[in-house]
Structure formats: C-alpha cells, structure tokens
Design goal:
By secondary structure, the chain is α+β, with helices and mostly antiparallel strands. 31% of the residues lie in helices and 21% in strands. Helix 10 links the parallel strand 16 and strand 17. The chain starts with 9 loop residues before the first strand and ends with a helix.
Length: 689
C-alpha cells in the first residue's frame, strides 16, 4: 500500500442523529415507573432503530416496543441496543456529570470492542443513552439522547459519488439489494461488499476480518467496500460510520496510510438502494488512538444547543387519546408503506348512519372503526335478546338482562367502550314501512319517528341499510336519494349476500377537483346506477305476515353477515377514495379477477363496483352493474317529486298500501299491459287451433 496524499482531502464530517420519540414510549415508561420500578433507578436495556428515509435527516426512533426483550424486525431498519437512565428527581437529572457519563459509557463500549465480539455481531459496536426524568403528575418528560462515539481517529475523504449507478451496473445494484435483504438482521448494521467479474457479493464482516487481528487473507481494497446502513440523506455519511472506522482501523493497522472504499447503503421501499453513496476514505499514516481522547455524542436540542428536550404528554397520554392514536396505526402503516396516496382524513370526516343494529350493523360498525371512521350512529327499535350476543358482536350477556337493552343504545355504548373518542349515538325509532298500515293511535308517534329519521339522514354523509326486511329499506332509500347521500345496502340470504351502492346524484363535498363524469362505454356513471329497488316491478308489502319463526328471522350461515358487513365497509372506503366520491362510475362487466379496469373506475384501492353478490354454496362472487329504473318505487324522480310535494300525506298513503307506489310510478299499468299481452297471446293460440 502506498501512503495517502492528504493535500486535496478534507476531514470527514458525520451527520448526527435526530431523535424521535413516539408517544407510546412515554406511555410504556409511565407504566413501568408506576407499576414496576417505583423508586428504583435501575438502568433499563431498550431498543432503538433507524433507517434511511430520504425526505428527512438521520432520524433515530424509539417507541412502545423499545422495552421489548427482542426488537421489532423490519427489513429496512437497523436495530440498536441502548440504555435508559431515568432519574427520580429533576435535581439528580440536572446535576449528573454528562461528560463523565458519556466517557464512562464510551470506555465500556471500547473495552467490549477489544474483545472482538463485534466482528461476529456488528450490532455490538453500537449503543445509545437516554437520560430522562419523568414528572408523572404533569406528564412532563425531560430527556437527552447520546450516541457515544470516539473523537479519534481523524480520517479524510476526497471522493464522493452521489449516484452508485455511475459505479455499479444495474445488475450489480440488483445483486446488492438482494444481498442486503438476505443478511440476518444482526448483520445489517455493518457488512462487506466485494465486487468481481462474477458480480456483487454481500457478506458478513466475519468472512473478511480475523478475530485475532487484521484480515483473514490478502484483501483487494480496490474492489472491497466496507458497508454500513446509513440514515443520512445528505452529502456526508451518517453517524454510524464513525464507530465503524474507529473499530476497523484499530483492528487492522495495515489500513494506516491506505485508501478504503466505503458504501453508505441507503435503502427504502420506494427507491431500493439507488440513493446509496460511495466514499473514498483516506486513513493517515499516523492516527491518534481512541484512548487518547474523549467521547462525543450528546444530541443538540431544537435550538441547536447541547441540552435536553421536553415532551409534554399531558394530552396524548390520556388513555382515550392514546387509544385513538394507536387505533390509527394500521391505516398509517398502509399509507406509509403500501398506499401512499390514500386519504386517511376522509374517513374521520365522514359521518355514518347505520339503519339496523343487528348482526350486520354490529359487523359494519366494527369494520368502520378499524378503517378510522369516528362518527357512527345507529337507528333501531329492537331490544337485545338472549339469542343475539353470539352473532351480534357488540352485545354481551348483560345486555340481555331485565328484558334487554335497546339495541341502538347498547351498540352506541359498546362502540364508546371500544374507542372512547368516537362520536356515537343510538336513536331508538321505528322505521315505518310500505304495506304496514298506521292506525290513528300511532299517527303522532309515526310522524315523530319519520322526522327524527329524516333529520338523522340529513345530518350524516353515508347511510348503511342493514335491515331485516325489504320494505324496511324503502323509507331510508327514499330519504337517501332526497338528501343526496351515499347509500350502501347489504342484504343476506341463507348462504348468499348482496352488497351494493345506490346511484348518487349530489355534489360530493370531498372532491378536490371539479367533477367530470367520464365518457367510457365500459363504465356506467355513478349517477345512473340503480338502487336496491330498481330491479323490482312490484311494491314491497308486509313480508312478516303469516310467517313462522324461522321465516320471520334472518336465518343465515354465521359467516355470511361478517363477509357482507366487511364488503359493505370496503365498498364505502373505495367510494370515498375515488376522485368522484359517490359519483364514481362502475364497470358494466366487472370481473372479480380483472387485472386492468379502466382508470375512471379505479380508486387508489382498486375498482369500485356497483354491487357484489356472493354465494357461499359455491364460494363465488359476481359484480353485476344495474342501471337506474325510471319507474323505481324508491329513487325515481316520480317518487321523489311526489314526496317533495305532498310530504307526510304521500308517506301515509304508501304505509297504508304498498300498491299506491305502483299506481304513482305507473307499474300498475305495466302489470295490466303484461297481463293483456298474455291474454291476447293465448287467444291467438286458441284461434290457430
């Protein structure tokens, strides 16, 4: 090796870490302090982690899982073992010798490094400190991170490649990426990359370094890269390189006066390893040993000074707030990793009104919570019976006692017990139905029920029709069309189900851009889609009359309701994520295994069908699309105009006789015309005979 010319070189600068503490970390610390440690000041071994992000500087994270015995594994993160020192009083926290503490920890780290254990387990090189004081009365947490590193030796760089594609070929970059992913989690902090005519080889440090000192064999430094996981997104390498170079130079004195290649691997899910950097590091002929100088690594605060930080968690550490934060984690992970364009906030803003708090209503409510919906209202007039809790997941045995609680109120209360931050209400109201006459004694109560239902519809954005009978869906369908609401319908058979969205003809308030209905022959605009009643040519009647117990109850296979409820919520989320919202078009011939539906029909989560019909007898699903029927008994302009003109008078005529809808819409004439055609056809046949 030749001596290095340092004339054009500059002292290497390392990018320090910026700590980020998740609220769950303080929650876990609080529980440990109150329930386990109490007045003890024992040091705690914890875990932290870092990765390359690209959009922010080198971030070092700790969260509630930091107290686990084993760290959470993630292919793009490097885990670091550290120590938490939590003091009992603010005075102890202030008066502790910070420089002495850092040097003591550094000395211990260096002694461990001398055992050469880091060669087999590179993560042994690393450590971090959190010095803290927890004021649990006010939920104020004072903390200071340190990432110990020796101030010596001093090395230089004079060559930087910001684009590894200028050095490596595409196939080599792919080999590098695959090799890095294949490494054990403990080996990803520091490793070796070699380049040859046969390609790129990613190996552990122990394959190159001899535990007794130096290299195992002659190493071609020209084609050998000392690699590390780099959190920096700037020109200079991140803080982890500092300890690596100190340990490497101490272990291999032959590197004195040499140039070595350093690969700062910057990997994430979107760009792979393309943002990685290559450095040529110049090691002087003579360097000061680590023992000759002190250790550095205390983090600077938000003002750029060496000092602690303060986290005031009085709001976020409230259990209800913490539950709210934690419940959104799955959705946030989806946005971070899988669907970056998903609009998370639209679910929180959307107010959902569930008609029916039975088996379907319970499943829909739970899935709405999981998707981040925070406004859920129930309308139901039934009571919780002993047969309900095994199928209706919001109720327990205690809800059945003393005659049973009202389902709407019990469901709303159960939702609040699951997540207290939800806005949930139960409205006890009977839903008047076509063909179910209203006597004089019930007139005032019916008027009151209709007014309450209409007001609830007007105040919400989405209606879920999750009722037992066909006729019970008529009034909510009418009101949904009248007020321009998104309507999601779910109905069950013994081993089949129907989930559909109704046609939508109102401006959608969440659209970011002016709405343009697509002109595509393969799609049907959302305004032209039919409702639940559009395929019917008869008015609904009293489906409960003269029926036995098994006919009065919705008897289904237990899994059908869970499937239909989940699909109903997924359909709504797909609608909300589409740029046109409720007016999202549906494919006319959507196949459930379609790979490439037209872009007009897709949201960020995929196509948005009109309806889904499933059959558990064959475990199959179809997605038919049906047009709006101009003589529909629920959503047609004829019916809507009659309701707007006559109001309660029209409704009571319908309640007294469902046949009134057939007269209003002209279906009666259609039936007579069909009967006359049949008669004439029979007459012609008889004449020919």
């Amino acid at each position: 090796m030749t001596e290095v010319d340092l004339d054009k070189a500059q002292i290497i600068q390392y990018v320090p870490f910026q700590s980020f503490v998740h609220p769950s970390f303080w929650h876990s610390l609080t529980n440990l302090k109150l329930d386990v440690d109490k007045l003890k000041e024992t040091k705690k071994e914890i875990w932290g982690r870092f990765s390359y992000r690209g959009d922010v500087e080198a971030i070092f994270e700790v969260d509630g899982t930091s107290f686990n015995v084993f760290p959470e594994d993630d292919i793009m993160y490097a885990n670091v073992r550290g120590t938490l020192m939590n003091k009992n009083t603010i005075e102890e926290y202030k008066t502790i010798d910070k420089a002495g503490l850092l040097n003591a920890v550094g000395k211990e780290m260096w002694e461990n490094m001398k055992t050469k254990a880091w060669i087999a387990n590179p993560f042994e090189l690393w450590n971090f400190i959190i010095l803290s004081f927890a004021d649990l009365k006010k939920f104020n947490y004072y903390y200071w991170f340190a990432f110990p590193a020796p101030s010596q030796p001093t090395v230089f760089i004079n060559e930087i490649s910001s684009n590894i594609r200028l050095i490596f070929r595409t196939i080599e970059i792919n080999e590098l990426s695959q090799g890095y992913k294949a490494l054990d989690e403990e080996q990803k902090g520091y490793f070796i990359v070699t380049r040859s005519d046969f390609g790129i080889n990613v190996t552990t440090i122990s394959t190159v370094l001899d535990a007794n000192g130096g290299f195992k064999e002659d190493v071609d430094l020209t084609n050998t890269y000392f690699a590390f996981t780099d959190p920096s997104n700037g020109r200079n390498p991140g803080w982890p390189l500092r300890l690596f170079l100190a340990a490497l130079i101490d272990h291999c004195p032959t590197l004195l006066g040499a140039s070595i290649n350093v690969l700062a691997l910057r990997a994430n899910y979107t760009a792979g390893v393309d943002n990685s950097r290559l450095y040529t590091v110049k090691v002087p002929q003579e360097v000061k040993p680590v023992e000759s100088a002190g250790w550095v690594g205390w983090e600077r605060n938000d003002k750029g000074n060496f000092g602690p930080k303060l986290a005031n968690m009085s709001a976020s550490l409230d259990p209800a707030v913490l539950a709210e934060t934690s419940s959104d984690l799955n959705i946030k992970l989806m946005k971070w990793r899988l669907v970056p364009d998903i609009d998370v906030d639209v679910m929180k803003r959307t107010r959902c009104l569930l008609f029916g708090a039975g088996t379907l209503g319970c499943h829909v409510a739970r899935d709405l919570l999981a998707w981040g919906f925070r406004h859920i209202t129930f309308i139901d007039n039934g009571k919780v019976s002993y047969s309900n809790p095994t199928r209706q997941v919001l109720y327990t045995f205690h809800d059945c006692l003393n005659g049973g609680r009202m389902k709407a109120e019990a469901a709303a209360n159960a939702i609040l017990n699951i997540l207290p931050s939800v806005v949930s209400e139960g409205i006890v109201a009977h839903i008047p139905m076509p063909g179910h006459p209203i006597g004089e004694a019930m007139t005032d109560e019916t008027v009151d029920n209709v007014k309450r239902i209409a007001q609830a519809v007007e105040e919400h954005d989405v209606l879920f029709l999750l009722l037992d009978s066909r006729e019970a869906r008529w009034l909510p369908t009418l009101l949904g069309a009248h007020y321009g609401k998104i309507v999601i319908n779910a109905a069950l058979g013994f081993d089949s189900y129907l989930v559909m969205r109704h046609g939508f003809n109102a401006e959608y308030e969440y659209c970011a851009e002016p709405m343009k209905i697509p002109d595509n022959k393969d799609c049907m605009p959302g305004v032209d889609l039919g409702c639940y009643f559009c395929n019917d040519v008869t008015a609904p009647g009293d489906s409960m009359k003269d029926r036995t117990l098994d006919q009065q109850c919705t008897v289904t296979r237990p899994g059908v309701a869970a499937i239909a409820g989940a699909l109903a919520v997924e359909l709504l989320v797909g609608v909300l994520q589409h740029p046109l919202g409720g007016r999202a078009p549906a494919m006319i011939n959507l196949k459930t295994d379609s790979d490439d539906p037209p872009k007009e029909c897709r949201s960020v989560l995929g196509p948005v069908p009109h309806s889904l019909r499933g059959f558990l007898s064959t475990y199959s699903t179809i997605a038919p699309t049906c047009a709006k029927f101009k003589q529909c008994i629920a959503c047609s302009d004829i019916v809507l105009n009659r309701y707007r003109e006559y109001g309660f008078d029209f409704l009571f005529e319908v309640f007294d006789s469902g046949n009134h809808l057939e007269e209003v819409t002209g279906l009666r004439e259609l039936h007579l015309s069909a009967e006359m055609t049949e008669i004439l056809t029979l007459s012609d046949d008889e004449g020919e005979e």
